[in-house]
Amino acid sequence: MKHFGKTLLFIALFAVAAAAQVPLDVEVKILRAEDELRFDADLTELLKHKVPAVRQRAALAAGRIGDAAAVGPLVELLAGDPAVEVRAMAAFALGEVESIEAADAIQRAIGETGKAKLPNVVEADIRGRLAEAAGKIAAANAKDPKAKDLGQAILFVLEAEHLKGADQNKETVLLALTAALRARPEKTDVTVAKFLTNSDARIRIDAANTLSRVRAKNANEQLRKMLSSDADAVARANAARALGASDDKTATDLLIKAATSDVDSRVRVSAVRSLAQLKDAKAAEALIAHGTKVLAGYKSSMAEGIVPAEHSEFVEVAVALGQIIPGSFNEAALKLFKDFAALDKGATSEVYVARVRVAPARGEGNAPELTSWKQYRTLAMIVGEFAVIEPKTEEGKKLKSEAAAILEPLARAMAEADPKEDADAIMAAPATLSAFARFGTDSLDEILRLALRNPDVQIRAAAASLLGDRPVADANLDVLKNAAEYAIMNDPNENDAALAAMNALFKLNKTEALSVLDIAAGSPDNLIRRRVHQMLNDEAYKGRELSPILKNIDRTDLLRVRRYSGKGTRLGQVLNNEADYRRAAARRNGSVKAVLTTKKGTFTIDLLPDDAPLTVDNFIRLANSKYFDGLEVHRVVPNFVMQDGDPRGDGTGGPGWTIRCEVNMVPYGRGTVGMALAGKDTGGSQWFVTHSPQPHLDGGYTVFGQVSERDMAVVDRIVQGDKILTVRIVGR
Question: What does CATH list as the number for 6-186?
């Protein structure tokens, strides 16, 4: 398990010791409580256990469960437990619960940690966790007045650490920087900018990351210096990203230099993206020249069945050109796109879209050959672009006026496609419907209503979401209610359509949504019932006369997991039994690895059963069933993540169940492996590896593995469309 900083190692040692001291039967009991999202008397008693390791583990479970009833017991641990590791975990857990009821205790503890008699290094660790909790609670309760106070407490922690100079606590700074990103208190940029010149590269990296995500505008001078001279490549990359986010057009020349000449591709890609944000036309010539150079490397690196790593960088350049010089008909850019298409065989939709942006309706090379669902999707994306671009030729203007008519029959056909007969249409339909919706034609609502009757869950989910953005119409409300009721009752393994229809109804007409909530409240799917709970807490329903079902329902019961007694599984349900819990618990302190083979090479994931036992067990079960073998890497974002595990290949697929989040203290550094989510407790089979530190993911996405720096050379070469050939488990 790889952690950063001496102080975090201090905490990690406690955690390792704790794991060894928690009896197997107790661990099994805790795993079951987490899986059932059940904070009860048994877990409350474990928070008072004589063994510190048990109290620490129970505190983590309380945070994972997220029941506000845990706030009181956790605050007691925070205020008075003699074991520092327990107090640190209590702070972490309070952040996961996200209840504003903990705000006063968090603020008080932030002010008091420096006064305690325990060693400063220990107290600093706790203060970092307190800042982390403050950020999560403030973000979850942004409208509450106490959120502002929590934000100021975070800045207080950062200012105090800055004044310490060389004696500052690294972990505290890193945690507080991410907390500031979440809470976004006033004058965040002023305080965070002070860390851009820190001697520690990781602190500079996280400071720049925070500034980029809050779109700070008052730190550009320091960021320009970092981009031009920082020795750390990731720090330069984050500085480039922050300059783009700040809309600093005076940084264009510096970004051009970084995009075309930096020795590290992560910096070049980040600079290219920022140039796309700035949309300064003077960057075009340099990007075209750089794209030509990258394409030459791409061509020379090509081998049979292997897509070179240069592919990703070229795509970024193409996308940027589409943003920077739309409608310019730039001949050099068009030649670049054409040369790439000859090598790529029309597989990359982003480049086609960029070409259309540069030369709307220019003809040659604008449309892919329709040989797969990806090409169908690309065609829809291309035509959909005419909803937002302004063609400068008569031909282009004519096509724009005709674009909706071109897409309409395709969208209609896909809305009515039979999953048993036309898999390509089914896979391409969500993107096609989204592209057609950009035109807002009179026939759009009718086609979306047709799509809401499709057997495919993802098509219904897409149609419901799009209808939710349309003007209110009785016909739409009626079909959304029917679609929601159907999905709740008849989709056993996917809840996407049910949740999308519920959300659309709620957005359009909260009164009409109430009848659906009656049915949804009785769903065996915990995620659907949790959404009912969230909706009923909305201001719109306060003082409103509710149905007997909703009026008398046990709100707490909506959050509890119900065991599904029928055949198969339901999303949001407990999938594990006693043997599963024992097997997962028994892996503690063991060594288990996943060995993944690709055409780019082999890399190994060191799995972390101590930190995420049920997530690791789920991954192992899928791997042993050969679920991952042959799956396409459906997402690669350079300098961010490589993502796999989707059998559909479009980012929406899964195994037919979801698993609980097992958030933990392991940070997202380079090579960290986490579970992809569409919301809390929605993990299943999709996983990702980070290319560089991503602190905004910490404590939100389950970390369950780590790829070594040695093996990251293989991960870095993987591009979208590559396949994971095999996944084999080694160890227990």
Answer: 1.25.10
